[in-house]
Automatic annotation (TrEMBL):
<protein>
    <recommendedName>
        <fullName>VOC domain-containing protein</fullName>
    </recommendedName>
</protein>
<feature type="domain" description="VOC">
    <location>
        <begin position="21"/>
        <end position="134"/>
    </location>
</feature>
<feature type="domain" description="VOC">
    <location>
        <begin position="148"/>
        <end position="263"/>
    </location>
</feature>
<dbReference type="InterPro" id="IPR037523">
    <property type="entry name" value="VOC_core"/>
</dbReference>
<dbReference type="InterPro" id="IPR052164">
    <property type="entry name" value="Anthracycline_SecMetBiosynth"/>
</dbReference>
<dbReference type="InterPro" id="IPR029068">
    <property type="entry name" value="Glyas_Bleomycin-R_OHBP_Dase"/>
</dbReference>
<dbReference type="Pfam" id="PF18029">
    <property type="entry name" value="Glyoxalase_6"/>
</dbReference>
<dbReference type="InterPro" id="IPR041581">
    <property type="entry name" value="Glyoxalase_6"/>
</dbReference>
Amino acid sequence: MTEARWPDDRRAQSARRTPGTPCWVSLMAHDVAATQEFYAELFGWTYRPGPQQLGPYVRAMLDGYEVAGIGQLPDRQLPITWTPYLASDDADATAESVRHCGGTVGVGPLVAGKAGRMAIASDPAGAVFGIWQAAAHAGAGVAGVPGTPTWTELLTRETVEVAKFYQTLFGYHEKAATRPNLDYLTLSLDGRPVASVRGVGQALPRDRGAHWMTYFETLDVDASAARVVELGGHVISPAEPGRYGRIATVADPEGAVFTLIRSERPS
């Protein structure tokens, strides 16, 4: 449910975002109507039409704020996944940098109506992400409250080489975890943590490879995970204490994987 709010996290995002900041998340699905219903039941989302240049596409709304996008997957062979978009001042220049640094640009850059300019790319390890140059649409209008994306993490085999790729693109400051045998980096911009990279070695799923994981805030991780199952999805990793709060990794009925989190809050 979305009635309860963390007291200081409801905030409209500024029109101009620091390049490299995760600013939007989008899911391309086979059955858009059924996918909308699933997330409406889980997070309380409502919807309004998105840019028609993207095909059948809607923007998920929470209490009047845009929080995510859901669109029609054009090819049934493509994986169904939540894709984060990283802000850019110049999508064309960022796409060219992706190619220069060993990544791949699969879509665009192209204009998404009056909303902005976008591209879909992948890093050298194969993790897919979006590039977003804002115009009328700056990205998510609220974050960190139940029903919204609250964190973005890259799961890859090892962090060193792929982190160099993203640091070259966006100038992230990287801070390594101090715990032994933990391959983990926090990425910051202007002194503010914005994402993380976790090296999981051979534990990387063979059927998914390197990928970005979106964390959605919830009031009760255990109850939300149970609700996922009731709505036709399934639990991949049961609820447990995580680095920044209680988490559970789940998948929607079409197989899109995401993580539920009840973030730890200062007392």
